[in-house]
Specification:
The structure is a homodimer. The first copy, chain A, is mainly α. Chain A is built from seven helices and three strands, in the order αβααββαααα. In chain A, α1 crosses α4 and α6 runs antiparallel to α7. Chain A is globular and about 65 Å long. The interface between A and B is medium-sized, with 35 and 33 residues. The first copy, chain A, binds a DNA duplex (28 and 28 nucleotides) through α2 and α3. Chains A, B: InterPro entries: Metal_resp_DNA-bind_regulator (IPR052509), Tscrpt_reg_PadR_N (IPR005149), WH-like_DNA-bd_sf (IPR036388), WH_DNA-bd_sf (IPR036390). Chains A, B: It comes from Actinomadura barringtoniae.
Chain lengths: ~210, ~210
Amino acid sequence: MSSRKGQGVLELAVLGLLHESPMHGYELRKRLNTLLGMFRAFSYGSLYPCLKQLLANGLIMEDRPEEPNVPLALQSRRSKIVYKLTAEGKERLQQLLTEAGPASWEDEGFGVHFAFFSHTRADVRLRILEGRRSRLEERLESVRAGLARTRERVDSYTLELQNHGLESVEREVRWLNELIGRERTEQEEQARTSKSTNTTQDMPRETGR
Amino acid sequence: MSSRKGQGVLELAVLGLLHESPMHGYELRKRLNTLLGMFRAFSYGSLYPCLKQLLANGLIMEDRPEEPNVPLALQSRRSKIVYKLTAEGKERLQQLLTEAGPASWEDEGFGVHFAFFSHTRADVRLRILEGRRSRLEERLESVRAGLARTRERVDSYTLELQNHGLESVEREVRWLNELIGRERTEQEEQARTSKSTNTTQDMPRETGR
DNA sequence: TTCGTCATGTAATGGGTTACATGATTAC
DNA sequence: GTAATCATGTAACCCATTACATGACGAA
């Protein structure tokens, strides 16, 4: 309960990764950066404080290896700390995965949300994809407008830059269109298959573990 | 003299725009955001403080309209403030345009530097383009490596994201290749044309003013 | 006269990086 | 035994956003 605001994108990313399997910070960061690939890279300086806070909020718990043969006290061994989700953490993850507000249309939020699409409800996936698309279309609109206004008095490099930007975004829109198309047909198929007891949910199955 | 560090990208952008023509903050911000189009958008909350600091550093000066018919004091009229570059400011701009360190390979820095390419020396342009390209190729490399390592145990959405990222970057690399090619042939042409008194400089001409 | 946009500013806050400090483990 | 890399952490700083406060000016 109560807001205790998570620090944006990192919270979701960490909870999402830890849901797949428990991990220690160092590994977490690597997985994080390969997961987000081109979009983002986090440093320890932001990861560890984040973990600390998630711990304080009871969303994750540490699982220290517990060296059974060390006398008793003097446990400041400073070794790996494996983190895993608590029940509350799983709940929170589910919540973040489902909310998908306007933040998930932005570059950052979108990337992370998308990375966990296989754990996201189909209807939410669709909402995010469509939100993202209209966000991008807004941008295209305004850039095109500005481009039309200033058209003449602009040097060729600036123009080149604008164009490259436009094309990149147009490309992403096409990509989104394709994805949205796929999602839609999948949804229709599933609707046809399971005529009865429709629980609005359909994720590709929990990956066990 | 002395570092008095400029706050990253904004300084260059502001100096660059003010070099083209004097402006007040409000307009500056609009031009800024259309100039940078897809890449970036600044808010007043960062622009005004920046102007303030540039002013304090003597890089720009205010040019208040001076209402000639207002009694004398009581000039707190609060109206438009037009900023323009000082001599020192022009110097600083030139310096920023020429330095082009590693920061200008990164997304942010690159965009802004590129936007002012028509005021940048040809050799510096080439350095930036090539720096950018190798920066991107590094990223491609590491992402591809990570992709090869984890290949199997990764869900289709994550894969889709990675791929889209890769393709975007590959596309930018191709774009850069084209630009670099053009720059090279231009340089060669110029070398052939002006056989004599070579001053290592060649900008498309100072736009007068 | 009021509404929308132009115009300038600031304080609180946020979210992140850099650089550093430290220790454990592995491979040579 | 030493170098590289794994692993954890923190403090100082940086850059920018948000939300707010203020006011001018033109058009309806």
